[in-house]
Amino acid sequence: ANAMRKAWQQRNAADREAAEALATTLVTATIAVSARASGEGKLFGSVSVHDVVDAIKDQTGVELERKMVDLGDGITAVGAHSVTVRPHDDVQFPVTVEVTAA
Fold first, then answer.
1. Exposed end of the chain (fewer CB within 10 Å): N or C?
2. Nearest to 75 by CA among 52, 56, 94
3. Model pLDDT for residues 30-68, shown as the tens digit of each residue
4. What is the DSSP annotation of 4-58?
């Protein structure tokens, strides 16, 4: 049991370090997403987690799982939005997503 606990702690520490390195990369980045919008800036629909994850991968090369990204109340308008990314239980950081009209 002690060996299993020690192995888990080592894996957890390595995963936390990887998540912190990911945070330093993504916190400074602004992710651009384009979507169809009305003249007033309201989107026809919304920007989904899948759209954000794909944009992050295309623009930074970082692959995230969809469950790591939290859009809060959702993105339904053109402009800058803060999205929370949680790659590890102990690591959470904001990423700026800039939505433009297509």
1. N
2. 52
3. 999 999 999 899 999 999 999 999 999 999 999 999 999
4. HHHHHHHHHHHHHHHHHHHHHHHHT-EEEEEE-B-TTSEEEEEE-HHHHHHHHHH
DSSP letter at 102? Answer: -
Residue 39 backbone phi and psi in degrees, to 5: -65, -25
Question: In the structure encoding, which two tokens stand for residue 27, read together?
Answer: 């916190």
Identify the residue whose tokens are 């192995």. Answer: 7
- Report the mean per-residue pLDDT for the chain: 94
Query: Judging by beta carbons within 10 Å of its beta carbon (0-12, 13-18, 19+), is residue 64 exposed, middle or buried?
Result: buried
Residue among 27, 25, 94, 91 nearest 62 (CA): 25
Instruction: Please give the pLDDT value at position 102.
Output: 86
Phi, then psi, of 63 in degrees rounded to 5: -95, 125
| % of the chain exceeding 70 in pLDDT | 100
